[in-house]
Amino acid sequence: MDAIFTVQRLASYLILIGLVFCLLSPASAYAQENPDAGSPALATDTTPPHIGNLFPENGKTVTENTTLLSAGISDNESGLSSIEFKLDGLVLGTGNIPVNYSHGLAFTYSPPLQSGTHVFEVEATDQSGNVARKSSVFYARSSIWPEGSTLNAENNSFYSVTLSWTAAEGSMGYRIYWGQHLLAEVDKSVRSFEATELEAGSSYGFKVEARLPNGGWSTDGPYVFTETLPLPHFPPTVWSVYPETGATVPTANPVIKAKIRDAGFGLQEDAILVKIDEEPVPYSYDAKTWNLSAQAIGLENGIHTLTIRAIDDAGVYKDYYGTFLVQAVWPAGSALSAGNVGQTSLTLAWSPAAGSGGYRIYRNGELIDTVSNAILSYESNDLQPGTSYVFKIEAQQSGGDWTTDGPTVIATTGMLSNPFLERLIKLHAALMAGDPSDVQKVRSLRDEIAGLKEEDALSLIDPVWNKVSAKLPLDVNRPELKSNLFQLFKAIGSIHYDTYEAEWLDIRSNSAFREALRVIAAAGGQESLTISDVTTFLTGDGDSLIGVEGTIAGMLAQKSKLELAQLILDKQKQTELLLGALARMFSDSEAYKVTSVLNRLGVTPQDLLAVANNFLGKLREDEPALQALGVAYIRSEAIETVKITANGKKRDYSLKVLDIPIPSVLLKWTKVSGDDKVTVTSNGTVSIPDQLANGTAVIQASLLNPYGGNAKVIFQKEVTLVNGGGN
Asked: Which CATH architecture has domain 47-129?
């Protein structure tokens, strides 16, 4: 997490410095002094609001008990002004937003409906006067449920509730629902039902509907909310189940295993229940070791359900429910290997599958080729350098289906470049080009991070670790895994700028780090997670993925100058910016493996921010180091623009950072060296006299130090002016 908070603080300092430039520009001052400049949206909006999803729908039949009329209404430009509902020509309600309007839904309550046809009309007006209208014609029929019909819940127990209801007139039968889930359908003479297999101490909503004489079903039946009784004590414990949920077993005759232990209230050993696909399976239980064993016989290839129930002497029970896949084509020990790994290619080889009719080769979940059963190797080309790939091989079964549990291998191609290292190299060069004291400040921070001791700092990662730990299998060595993760974060956060390449290779080759990420990836639903995936999350991949750093920069580029002003003055808005960037990345689990895994583990952007704040509270060298890095970042990202005039004899220079112009009042331009007759003014004008054919000089721009002290050099370049070489 050191790397995460470093990027977070880095981006904040760098970008906020850039924002200062905008705040001092004349356009920003005008915007603050002229709040009544007018709204372009109101002047140009000719698009009426959008109306959709009317209820009742056009042509729909409802009962006379219907009480709500609604419509989805939105306006993406000037905003809504008013909404009007009519029923059969009668205005039901009108008013300014947000009366009867919430999150795009407008609604009002209907007067009592009479049987027959009704017309529902909706009119919406926006702030620019644009009007939209929509209507529906629906039919109301009499309900077969008499007024005052009820559904009652009684005899509530830990795991069941008895439901009973009053009769519907002319009903041909009843359906009982839990929420939207159909529990049962019963004859018209039955007016009670026992809902079983419920969770103890839980709330439930039940509903009953009647079958109409025409074969349809009512939609306005009575409902009831109730709760099952809470357990008087903890139930027995069922754990270490094999096969675990989602596992694939290579045999049709797997041995089911589990551990069962009572919670101090005895265990009905003879009442233990083991079912596969709802069919009981004989079992044995050893009370001394808590080991349960059950032999399944002749399971077909495919997905099977596994249920284990343990009941204590008080009747309190614990259910385990899972699914597993039987696929016996691949013999035990089947393997896929990757050899001859280069920068853009590698060779796969695999052991044969029993009775295979051919093989399919997958790369990162995508089918790339199909070969005959006589081929047991394959060359994969067109790979990206320095990239990890997951390869998988599947076999065709005798019936024509394909296996899903074939062997896999993870291979990483040789590195040509790495965006994370490239960022370090670029920032290192910018840092070294500046004040030597800034270099020492950064090294002091890295040394402090590297010197963090587990006994003092291990708890700093708890906001994320606690979420991860809760989703790990029981057999994972949690203390060891947490230690390895802490050391990994510390290693990334303490890479020194003068030995970064060797340290980076050490991190990538560390087997403990790779294993830690593999375990977390598996818990988060991924086959693999690599160091490169982590750094891609932070700084992008140099291509389409922009990482945390690029996401923040992109969000800033979309903000108005007033919003940027508010951002620089409000730390809460800075925090919201970071959380917003992380939220965008968390919403795209397909692009970033890190966010995919964290989402599955329940880790949130707020958890990452909490870890970052924990480290900031622990470190003492962070402020001066991050200030130095902020200036170095501006130096590394500064891009000059030049305006050539006077037929090439005059150039006016300015700088941009993240496409934000730096006001000239914040910069001081000087000549470092060059021809005597080349002049450089403090505002960035470089010129030569009329009689000079050309002139060369090294110019530099210094930024007013936002942290106090001397100005910081952020740009330097050799330029040549040619008389007659421009406008």
From this structure: Sandwich (2.60)
